[in-house]
Amino acid sequence: MDVTNMNDPRLTAIGLLTEVYAGLTARLQPVFNAAGLSEIDFETLIRLGRSPRQALRMTDLAAQTGLSTSGVTRVVDRLERDGLVIREACATDRRASYATLTPAGREKLEEVLPQHLADVDELLTGLLSGEELDGFLAALRKIRSVVRPCATAGAVEVTAQS
């Protein structure tokens, strides 16, 4: 293999992905800023909002966001001070605690989501046909399962087997 090939499609793939991510982040950030949220604040709130009971164990939230346990603690502390999240002890494991979306946190998401979804549609999903979007989502899930396998930790409610 010629390692000096600057037209290698692998370089193109990672370059395009980086450019798209940077462009999307820059275009989406003003909506978060207007709501007084950082990107990680929004990601934390949306992950809680989309989880069973709108709550996640702190360790699962750290895994999903890619933050360290101390990093997720700082984010949850900040969101808790703002009244958007509460921390609750786990009834079955004294060592564990849950971050739970509050009614104010749901209201914050309801404030941000209409414009956020309109922006996502304009900048990403609306540019693709239904078939392209299905393929794109399948490809992203395939890649995520390799690079961030714990990104869905705690997302499915575990129930006792009969």
UniProtKB/TrEMBL annotation:
PROSITE patterns tied to this protein: HTH_MARR_2
InterPro entries for the chain: HTH_MarR-typ, MarR/SlyA-like, WH-like_DNA-bd_sf, WH_DNA-bd_sf
Record-annotated membrane-spanning stretches: none
Domain HTH marR-type: 10-145
Pfam families assigned to the protein according to its UniProt record, in alphabetical order: MarR_2
Highest taxon, organism lineage: Bacteria
Name the record gives this protein: MarR family transcriptional regulator
